[in-house]
Amino acid sequence: MKALIIVDIQNDFLPGGSLAVPKGDEVIPFINKVQDQYSLIVATQDWHPEDHSSFASQHAGQQPYDLIQLNGMEQVLWPNHCVQNSKGAEFHTDLQTNNIAAIFRKGMNPNIDSYSGFFDNGRLNDTGLSGYLKAKNVDEVHICGLAADFCVFYSAMDALSLGFRTAILSKGTRAIDREKYMEKKDVFIREGGRLL
């Protein structure tokens, strides 16, 4: 069975949000339109505590987009975004959510970031998404949402590593940094992923 994974269509990643993806709002009509092609739809949601260690505000002297080492891993420091129970963490009101069967929240551990919908960045904690999909007999996933070069890419790479046939819906995603996404896209394709 084939499932659609909608990644992080949240207010903070859309125009006017604290970590807005350029033209991120353009993907919503496409994502709404394709939903009827899937018998199972799930979504991911960034859900950070206020003191998340990926926030630049938690590191004296650091600015958003600085790179640091955090728990032995390279970490981009972000503006505060998608704080639990905030307006910025909510799904955008234009996104059709009636067909979403389950929502998998990520980034709740304040000590480690979580780009992928499947695991945190250290692969220490599993969100439960893989087990849920396998229990539903899903063997292929199509991924869309924000942002192409971070949460979409890492979700897609983890899906491949977990044995799912995996595609990224190009019209359903936008990147923070398009040039870096083009490099990551090539990695995804080399690993067996597809772009649709």
Automatic annotation (TrEMBL):
Pathway terms, separated by semicolons: Cofactor biosynthesis; nicotinate biosynthesis; nicotinate from nicotinamide: step 1/1
User: Does Hydrolase show up as a keyword for this record?
Assistant: yes
**Coiled-coil region:** none
Superkingdom field: Bacteria
Q: Which residues form the signal peptide?
A: none
Instruction: Tell me which SUPFAM superfamilies the record gives.
Output: Isochorismatase-like hydrolases
Q: Which UniProt keywords apply?
A: Hydrolase, Metal-binding, Pyridine nucleotide biosynthesis
User: Which GO MF terms does the UniProt record name?
Assistant: metal ion binding; nicotinamidase activity
Which Pfam families does the record associate with it?
A: Isochorismatase (PF00857)
One GO biological-process annotation of the entry reads: pyridine nucleotide biosynthetic process
For this chain, the family text in UniProt reads: Belongs to the isochorismatase family.
- Check the record and name the NCBIfam families matching this protein: PRK11609.1
Protein name, per record: Nicotinamidase
Q: Which organism is it from?
A: Candidatus Sphingobacterium stercoripullorum
